[in-house]
Amino acid sequence: MDQMGMSESEWREVVESLEDVGPYYDKVNSMMTFGLVDKWRRHVASYARPEDVVLEIGSGPGNFARHLASKTVYCIEPSSKMLSASRQMIDGEKVTLVRGVGEKIPLSDGSVDKVFCVFSFRDFRNKTAGVEEIHRVLKAGGEAFITDIAKPSPGPLAKMLEMHFKHLVPVLARVAVGPDAKEVWARDPYRKLLETYEAFGSPEVHEGMLRTHGFTEISTEYLELKGAAMTRGKKPWKSTSS
């Protein structure tokens, strides 16, 4: 597992871990971000216009999709359990749920205006293939947004976030789920979260990936308290990809 992706077996372990925490997903995320995670989601969702056709990759239980005001939304998610949970969260008239992965998007070339990976890009099996697919399905002038837990360059902030994930997050997660989840926690699902975070690239890495695969107007915005980062790029009207 590294900043470019992971093996098939590692990826399946990550999906299983996410399914383990699924019933407690939003409560745990809220505690570990000190209540900011939904504010971050709403901020990112505000970049989608009502007239846009939107794709979210790795939609989980639907916590981001519910904030999208766009007329047409596609949510791709590899876990059937997560898709089932999301049906309770989203508007079934405007949101189409599809089981699949970001490395092989079941949509036509140039068919969407915005693509969002919100706390999911970290879990892509092959990030290069994922970026290539995102570029393919975007219309000319369309935008990609990669939002995830901040992974700043080495320094005091990076060290603080690392300590948070290694020592505080497991404690907060156990408090959030309660004693009835003893069997789930015996499998230590947040160990995989820590592994994916440690392997995850910085925003500079993601900016470089977008640039290499033909995106322009690339920038990164750190969200409130610098706990998350949003990297975005545009597919140019005239493609510059090789």
Q: What does the model show?
A:
The chain is α/β, with parallel strands linked by helices. It has a single domain (8-234), classed as 3-Layer(aba) Sandwich (Rossmann fold). The chain is 40% helix and 20% strand. It contains nine helices and seven strands; from the N terminus they run αααββαββαβααααββ. The chain has helices at 8-21, 25-32, 37-45, 80-86, 127-137, 156-177, 182-186, 190-199, 203-212, and strands spanning 53-57, 72-77, 95-99, 112-118, 138-149, 216-222, 228-234. The protein has a seven-stranded mixed β-sheet with strand order 3-2-1-4-5-7-6, sandwiched between helices. Helix 5 (127-137) links the parallel strand 4 (112-118) and strand 5. The longest helix has 22 residues, at 156-177. The protein is globular, with a radius of gyration of 17 Å. The mean pLDDT is 87.
Helix content, binned percent: 25-40%
Largest sheet: 7 strands, mixed
- CATH secondary-structure class: Alpha Beta
Q: Could you say which overall geometry the principal axes of the C-alpha atoms support?
A: globular
Give average pLDDT, whole number: 87
Number of helices: 9
Q: How much strand content do the residues show?
A: 15-25%
Helix-strand string: HHHEEHEEHEHHHHEE
For the record, the CATH architecture stands as 3-Layer(aba) Sandwich
- Counted up, domains total 1
Q: Please name the fourth-level CATH homologous superfamily.
A: Vaccinia Virus protein VP39
CATH fold assignment? Rossmann fold
User: Low-confidence parts lasting 5 or more residues at pLDDT below 50?
Assistant: none
Return Rg in Å: 17 Å
Counted beta strands: 7
Spatial separation of the terminal alpha carbons: 27 Å
Strand line-up in the sheet with most strands:
3-2-1-4-5-7-6
- Strand-pairing-aware structural class: alpha/beta
